[in-house]
Amino acid sequence: MSGVDLDVPTGTPAAVPTPQPGDPRLARLSLNQKTVNRLGVAEATDLCVRHGFGAIGLWREPVAEIGTARAARLVRDAGLRVSSLCRGGFLTAADEAGRTAALDDNRRAIDEAAALGTDTLVLVVGGLPAGSRDLAGARQRVADALAVLVPVAADAGVRLALEPMHPMFCADRGVLSTMEQSLAVAAPYPASQVGVVVDTYHVWWDPAAYQQIARAAGRIASFQVCDWVVPLPADTLLGRGMMGDGTIDFRSFRRAVDAAGYDGDIEVEIFNADVWAADPDAVAATVARRYVTEVLD
Amino acid sequence: MSGVDLDVPTGTPAAVPTPQPGDPRLARLSLNQKTVNRLGVAEATDLCVRHGFGAIGLWREPVAEIGTARAARLVRDAGLRVSSLCRGGFLTAADEAGRTAALDDNRRAIDEAAALGTDTLVLVVGGLPAGSRDLAGARQRVADALAVLVPVAADAGVRLALEPMHPMFCADRGVLSTMEQSLAVAAPYPASQVGVVVDTYHVWWDPAAYQQIARAAGRIASFQVCDWVVPLPADTLLGRGMMGDGTIDFRSFRRAVDAAGYDGDIEVEIFNADVWAADPDAVAATVARRYVTEVLD
Description:
2 copies of one chain form a homodimer. Chain A has 11 helices and 10 strands. By secondary structure, the first copy, chain A, is an alpha/beta fold.
């Protein structure tokens, strides 16, 4: 069970009115496209406009379905910002062919981000290559790849946003496991060129999370929210919950990134089969309301 | 799928002979009773003797089935050490009744450990109370409970062993998530009274793991091994793999605890439905062989 409570249209005694389009509280709210996984760029863009979101977080695959230029125009004409492009990364291959393919793919992702008008390319750095137990080696290869990609991104006006992943994903998805570690990898580069993603789902457990968010001042490239809900589902990739359904204290995290000077968009990114199956308008309305009740003051 | 490869009796071309009872390489090897979950204390003890293990890690529930005195006698008569008793803890209740009940239960666990002749009581400290998002508060309550329990344990000659749990279990099982954090909670007490558990499954992902193991010198109360196997099963509690089936570099961790001066038993603790369903003699033989090939030099 997912813990998703799409409390539209039934509401609850404690429910607040759903914020309407034009509500200034929604100005920084961004819908990451993955939250409405069945929708293409056009449909997701319309949904954001219909519900008053200020921005959208795009994914490369649905963008590729209609072409980068068309996607860029759709979002621009809708008056939305592109808060980020997901995702580059997967930079841990140990063989030369894998390494070259990954760098080429990331160069394309940088170009796509620039064409879409976002300065933020989220990097999920990749897990251990099949059969490998060399975690330190994989982490080093991420740093090595960054040395190649940062100048390319800087030329394109794109900031690479390192996303520390929950340690549950260390083996197969992302060997950067903490904010502290991600900041260390970013440190050799200007903050304008390499930032970090603060995703509540990935960092909420970290005893050093608030301290590291303070240290990240100037480097926070994206702030993403979704909740930790137990028990985890069979596919742990799809365990993310709607804000308010789980164990994360979003308000404290939002205040921490505020205090670190972050004033960019706040992306709601929910990988969850029940959310994906639900009516997108109900999802968007719930996201807007929970954003107001759980994330803002 | 669990990734378990019980390569007895088929073996593989690369298989080494199974170490036999009396093999000095097995002197520090301990079978945590949970690895053969269907067996009672008597059967698990016999199994350890049959396969030449030097010690056994006991759990309170199967001990209670036959009584602490009888369990102690069985293990002593078999010539085995009790490497640890699992487990006390669950100290995060926010209400007075829950807190009192937890302290009482831990006092009983301390008495049981002493009666069983082990100086190590493993503490799984507990997750967030239902409905709570106050992670810092839960962590503080662990520290507060420890202040009550440490003198009780010290009087009984028992060392409390704080087990940092993988962050995947932070919400519902253990709010101590790293070695560093556990060492900070242990710091006010003598190392002889409060130690930490190094369980490869819980700490392998931590960028600071080796550094913190070095810092833990003198405080390492237990070293436990089992592997991280992806994908995780539907019940993430049962995802632990046989050493060699996953992504963990055991030899490096064993060398690190060696270098930190740990010379106690090395416990194999595998929560895994397939391992539990297998023939216990095949499990014990595989554990002994994998211990030699994956953990020792």
